[in-house]
Specification:
- By secondary structure, the protein is an alpha/beta fold.
- 39% of the residues lie in helices and 18% in strands.
- The chain is built from 16 helices and 16 strands.
- The protein has an 8-stranded mixed beta sheet with strand order 8-12-11-13-14-10-15-16, sandwiched between helices. A 6-stranded antiparallel barrel has the order 1-2-5-4-3-6.
- It is elongated.
Length: 500
């Protein structure tokens, strides 16, 4: 008993001598303000990412917990906070309002509307920081996310619930590829969420106009944190967008989310960390930047039907410099995601768009979700195309080639022409399958290279008209029977000869 009495007396003495008064557990005082960072004394029981309200009306989230101070990041544009102002705990983690009303709207990182539409009122607060689905809740990726982009659907297929990185230098078509993938979901039941991080307002406005003009914007949620927004808003924007996507996934729906781009998100986090005097690591980024992105992307997954059956498919975008994929942030994201689509600047400058480098691109799990019809016609495309790229260099030296090598080069050149696809041009599954059947038949080998693409499309259209039942089976079930495949090959050889 004497021992317990001494312990209690020691606790009471420590509490009396503490620098924090009783009120400091719920109320703090601003010590300093600068660059969107507020240092507080008090609030010693605040938790990370908890929402803090300031006497001035500003709002921030807890971002740094030290022994004798609390660092918060302001989320408001106009900073009215001054030293000496009071700060109050809310007991709530930073959240965003989610709901059906967000569809077709442009909102900021806190869910407030940025367009000219009505106020968004009927929403449910979702924490921007949420745990990723557990292993028990997840399911195998088994259903294809059809993008309508030939090079992706044939050689780099994406499954619903997959995370596929889009990587490349500046101005190589990364955003264009992701926006086209969203636009083409107007032919599916997929909900789309696009988050723009740290971009110029003019770029964001152009992207919104493209989505409105060519897609179904009524099934898109556009989250914007442009370059003029506070660094705090730019940091939490992708987490808010993911919370919005999770709302629809929990309704059993499939969602496609595009993060454009995580390079700027990493830079925003580095800025916050440096302002909070955290030690920099490799390439001056803080050591926990890997965790920042992994906990974000791990929230994208396919959910088992026992837990609702929805999915979030992620297309994060990352920018490289001079093609250096071995830089810190790109290598982090490559290790987190399930594959990457590498866009090459030299291919882009030669007019090959989309400029996907098939040799450096990979989809690790999407092939298992690919439709059977596409698997049948595209199973060797990537291997043959990679071989063609390797041997094509010999043609520049005028070397005499073996017949098999010459055939590989002719086929590869025509495949490359077929993979060129203008923006906003959707290619349905049956169209793609039948074009690859025409290529595989060898019917284009004797056609002039300049005319190969047009001839292929013409023959594929004739094929669809002549075999409507086969086209319907591909379109509705994604299936092409082996016997039908042989019939299509024969038709392609005869029709290409007639069109030559």
């Amino acid at each position: 008993m004497e021992e317990l009495k001494r312990i209690f007396e020691s606790i009471e003495t420590t509490a009396r001598e503490s620098r924090f008064r009783a009120s400091s557990w719920e109320e703090g005082t601003v010590v300093s303000v600068g660059d969107g960072i507020v240092q507080l004394s008090g609030l010693s029981d605040a938790t990370m990412y908890e929402l803090i309200e300031l006497e001035s009306g500003d709002v921030g989230i807890v971002f740094d917990l030290a022994v004798d101070s609390t660092g918060i990041v302001l989320l408001t544009q106009e900073v009215n906070t001054r030293a000496g102002h009071k700060a109050y705990k809310t007991g709530r983690i930073g959240s965003v309002g989610v709901g059906e009303e967000l569809l077709g709207r442009v909102v900021d990182a806190l869910g407030a509307p940025l367009d000219e539409g009505p106020e968004i009122s009927n929403t449910t607060p979702y924490s921007v920081e949420r745990e990723a689905p557990t292993l028990v809740e997840r399911d195998f990726v088994s259903e294809s996310l059809f993008t309508g982009i030939k090079v992706i659907d044939a050689m780099l297929p994406i499954g619903r619930g997959q995370r596929e990185l889009i990587i490349g230098d500046s101005s190589t078509g990364k955003t264009a590829m992701a926006v086209d993938a969203i636009i083409n979901q107007k032919h599916s039941d997929v909900i789309c969420v696009y988050v723009a991080i740290g971009q110029k307002k003019a770029v964001i406005i152009r992207t919104i106009e493209e989505l409105r003009a060519h897609g179904d914007f009524s099934r898109v949620v556009f989250v914007a944190a442009d370059a003029s927004n506070s660094v705090g808003l730019q940091f939490i924007a992708p987490y808010s967008a993911t919370a919005i996507a999770e709302y629809f996934r929990e309704k059993g729906r499939d969602v496609l989310i595009v993060y454009d781009d995580l390079t700027k998100h990493a830079e925003a986090y580095r800025t916050l960390s440096l302002l909070l005097k955290r030690p920099p690591g490799r390439e001056a980024f803080p050591g926990d930047i890997f965790y920042i992105h992994s906990r974000l992307l791990e929230r994208s997954a396919k959910i088992s039907h026992r837990f609702g059956g929805g999915s979030i498919t992620a297309l994060p975008i990352i920018e490289t410099q001079q093609g250096r994929v071995s830089s810190f942030i790109p290598t982090n994201l490559i290790s987190i995601t399930d594959g990457q689509i590498y866009l090459d600047a030299s291919l882009f400058s030669r007019g090959l768009q989309p400029a996907a480098d098939v040799g450096m691109s990979v989809s690790r799990i999407g092939g298992k979700a690919q439709d059977q019809a596409m698997q049948l016609v595209a199973e060797r495309l990537k291997i043959d195309y990679a071989r063609f790229i390797e041997v094509e260099v010999f043609t520049k030296f005028g070397s005499r080639l073996e017949e098999e090598t010459a055939k590989l080069i002719r086929r590869g050149q025509r495949l490359r022409e077929m993979l060129k696809q203008p923006r906003f041009e959707y290619r349905a599954l049956e169209e793609q399958v039948m074009e690859f059947v025409v290529l595989e038949s060898g019917a284009l080998d004797g056609i002039d290279l300049e005319a190969a693409s047009d001839t292929c499309r013409k023959v594929a259209q004739e094929m669809a008209d002549s075999f409507p039942d086969v086209a319907r089976g591909i379109r509705e079930k994604g299936v092409l029977e082996k016997a039908d495949y042989e019939r299509l090959l024969s038709f392609a050889r005869e029709s290409a000869g007639a069109n030559a």
